[in-house]
Amino acid sequence: MNHNLKKNGNFTYLEEGEGTPIIILHGLMGGLSNFDSVTQFLTENGYKVVIPELPVYSMPLVKTGVKSFAKYLQEFITTLGYRDVILLGNSMGGHVGLYHTKHYPENTKGLVITGSSGLYENAMGESYPKRGDYEYIKKKAQAVFYDPTIATKEIVDEVYDTVNDRNKLIKTLAIAKSAIRHNMAQDLPDMHTPTCIIWGKQDSVTPPEVAVDFEKLLPDSELFWIDKCGHAAMMEQPEEFNKILLSWLKKRDF
Fold first, then answer.
1. What is the torsional sign of CA 24, 75, 15, 156?
2. Which positions ≥6 away from 140 have C-beta within 8 Å?
3. C-alpha distances in Å from residue 141, one per residue of 78, 147, 188, 199
4. Structural domains of the chain sorted by starting position, each given as residue range(s) with its CATH number in brackets
5. Per residue in 138-168, pLDDT tens?
6. DSSP 164-232
7. In degrees, to the nearest 5, what angle opens at C-alpha 219 toward C-alphas 201 and 240?
8. Inter-axis angle of helices 153-163 and 166-181, to 10 degrees?
């Protein structure tokens, strides 16, 4: 899918379609292409899809983390004049969506999280000292998915390049620590934004029990499972993911 990116001040983003804006938040190792299927599906069904490039590696180190990304998202929404948005986030993007919804609830009418951090995350962590070992990184990338073939050479190469770039590595570790610091277990019971939780049954990064805890703690949430699916449901099982998502959106009259 060709991405015709737009620029507005410091913001670079994809904007497709018309209708209710759904702002998609990519994960730490993710990007716009992870959501190609979702973007096409939602625009065909009457929604505007917006995917900002989060400043994962461009913020000063002391500001690199979930809190700053949520503030960046709020500035993005304000600058572009969006109202009554729905946030959809995977992995770290889900955490940013949750944190943003807690602190800036006025413009967010719905939230969708999949494989989200915020309660627990089994990330690469201790594997980084082996960052020079391509086969090791390949196995780690493949482990994100139920079907390891989803981890294409392009995906593996991107992860390998990231963990071998000292600046990116330092910021990746800073974000991982930030995610732990900003655990949201105490916050979720006070967050009443309607939330759709879509989870892979075989997610090894944020295991299924994490999704169960999210549903227990978020007052207005629904949990949907996708079988034979790992950490990135929108990539691995796009048809099922899109079906669940649209059904929930329609049910909520969004």
1. negative
2. 124, 127, 159
3. 35, 11, 30, 18
4. 6-123+183-251 (3.40.50.1820)
5. 998 999 999 999 999 999 998 888 888 988 8
6. TSHHHHHHHHHHHHHHHHT--TTTGGG--S-EEEEEETT-SSS-HHHHHHHHHHSTTEEEEEESS--S-
7. 30
8. 90
At 5-62, the pLDDT tens digits run 999 999 999 999 999 999 999 988 777 788 999 999 999 999 999 999 999 888 888 8
Amino acid at the residue 3: H
Q: Which two tokens stand for residue 113?
A: 């999280």
The tokens describing 204, both together, are 């090894």
Q: pTM score > 0.90 for this model? A: yes
Angle value at C-alpha 246, between 241 and 248, nearest 5 degrees: 95
Token pair for 62: 């002391």
What's the rounded Cα separation, in Å, for the pair 118 and 116?
6
**Any idea which residue has 């059904």 for tokens?**
247
Phi, psi values for residue 6, rounded to 5°? -110, 160
221-226 vs 6-8, strand pairing mode:
unpaired
Instruction: Give the integer Cα–Cα distance in Å for 237 and 224.
Output: 13
| Strands annotated E in the chain | 6-8, 11-16, 20-25, 47-52, 85-90, 108-114, 195-200, 221-226
List Cβ neighbours of 54 (8 Å cut-off, separation of 6 or more).
25, 26, 69, 72, 73, 93, 96
